[in-house]
Design brief:
Blueprint: H1 2-12, H2 17-56, E1 60-63, H3 67-70, H4 80-88, E2 93-107, E3 113-120, H5 122-125, E4 143-147, H6 148-154, E5 161-167, E6 173-184, H7 189-194, E7 195-199, H8 200-206, E8 215-220, H9 226-234, E9 243-246, H10 247-250, H11 252-290, H12 292-300, H13 305-339, E10 343-344, E11 356-359, E12 362-365, E13 367-368, H14 374-391, H15 393-400, H16 404-409
Parallel strand pairs: 3-7, 4-6
Antiparallel strand pairs: 1-8, 1-9, 2-3, 2-5, 2-8, 4-7, 5-6, 10-13, 11-12
Helix pairs in contact: 1-13, 2-11, 2-13, 2-14, 11-13, 11-14, 11-15, 13-14, 13-15
């Protein structure tokens, strides 16, 4: 009996093909919007996570306890080599890079410009997601790399000699001449805007910081291990006077942005609910009123009211599931068609030269590669089944309470 009811319900969908098609279109478009939005938001979240845990911040950072508040050059970590060796002992650690940051003046000729010396571990930063990832030639001792925006501002070119002048950690004058090896563009906005990148050893020598660094950036082998690494390192006696923090605590504002991107998916899910309710409820109400006479005859012949109710509910579920299947196919087709080349959101801004969005010294790429998880389509399916059943309640209630004689007169 239930199977027979389902077969009748399925055939009833073809009785008014235009109305059924409109209901399917509404649900399919809503499901497509859900999957397209989820795909874009997941791709955008991936960009933010890679920007955070990649070149600039890493998964975990270690500093002098007051460094993040004051950014004073003398607030440094001592015995950096031993600290880095200790960090490498952790099984979840992939790369470790010690860094030095110092405000300086750079003079390509007569005029001087404000800049920032960034001394870093060349070998570590040349790995994937490092600041120097993709650099054609390794950074040589006695040479520097310059951020492309700074180079454009001061007119520096590769091979040019520049003077770097600042104050050393001990209060003395720090000054030296360096050759610009290359002009670079990287995801760290601070380097693009004002960076003079040199090896950690050159920076230690220039700023009188023997075996010292202001910051140690730690990258985990796999994502999700930042808090475990932080906990284990913090428990070591050698880190008693060092602040160790996971990336979630270093850039909490960006963590909030990641959470907000998830809420966008819920908003799209609400659209699916509304489209399903509107499309299915309208279709079933019209269908029910058109078939009042037919329902009266069925009731007069002995059909139980609950069977008519089941038939209407089955019609609603069939419309919902079919609409979700069509929308899912469209959504996955959209993601599959854009996943490889991505979507350049920067081009939406017109003819400007906007390429990335900078926030707190990080470049957040605007070229998004959409992706989906299996749960994305499942959420839409569950939502539509629930709303289909909810939308069928009123038409089913009307049909189930019909009096056979009065219904046959309609």
């Amino acid at each position: 009996m239930p199977m027979r009811t389902a077969q009748i319900a399925w055939r009833n969908l073809g009785r008014n093909k235009k109305r059924t098609a409109l209901a399917l279109l509404a649900i399919a478009v809503a499901q497509f919007a859900l999957l397209a939005t989820d795909g874009l938001m997941r791709g955008y979240s991936d960009n933010i996570r890679l920007a955070i845990t990649g070149p600039m911040v890493g998964h975990v950072q270690a500093h002098h306890p007051n460094w993040r508040r004051e950014w004073a050059l003398d607030l440094a970590i001592d015995e950096v080599d031993r600290i880095v060796s200790t960090i490498h002992e952790d099984p979840d650690v992939g790369d470790v890079s010690a860094r030095i940051y110092a405000p300086v003046l750079v003079a390509p000729e007569e005029d001087a410009f404000v800049a920032t010396v960034v001394g870093l571990s060349v070998d570590s930063e040349s790995n994937p997601y490092g600041v120097l990832s993709g650099l054609k030639h390794p950074l040589e001792r006695g040479k520097v790399l310059m951020g492309y925006r700074l180079a454009k501002k001061i007119g520096a070119k590769p091979g040019q000699e520049v003077a770097v002048i600042g104050q050393a950690a001990d209060g003395s004058l720090a000054n030296d001449l360096y050759i610009v090896q290359d002009i670079i563009k990287c995801p760290a906005d601070i380097i693009n805007q004002s960076g003079i990148v040199m090896s950690l050893q050159d920076a230690q020598r220039l700023l009188v910081m023997p075996n010292q660094a202001n910051e140690i950036v730690i990258r985990a082998k796999t994502s999700g291990k930042s808090r475990d690494i932080t906990r284990r390192l913090s428990q070591r006696p050698r880190f008693a006077a060092i602040e160790v923090l996971p990336w979630q605590e270093i850039v909490p504002e960006l963590v909030l942005i990641l959470k907000m991107s998830d809420y966008v998916g819920y908003f799209a899910l609400v659209i699916v609910f509304v489209a399903a309710i509107a499309g299915i409820a309208n279709t079933l109400m019209m269908s029910t009123f058109e078939r009042v006479h037919e329902f009266g005859m069925l009731l007069a012949l002995g059909t139980q009211p609950r069977r008519i109710v089941r038939m209407i509910v089955c019609e609603a579920i069939f419309i919902g599931i079919l609409g979700v299947v069509i929308g899912t196919a469209l959504g996955y087709g959209f993601v599959a068609g854009t996943a490889e080349r991505g979507i350049d959101m920067a081009s939406w801004g017109g003819e400007g030269q906007v390429e990335d969005m900078a926030y707190q010294g990080l470049n957040l790429p605007l070229h998004i590669y959409p992706r989906l998880e299996p749960v994305d389509s499942l959420l839409g399916l569950i939502a539509v089944i629930i709303t289909s059943m909810a939308a069928s309640v009123w038409p089913a209630w009307i049909a189930g309470r019909l009096e056979p004689v009065e219904a046959m007169r309609a």
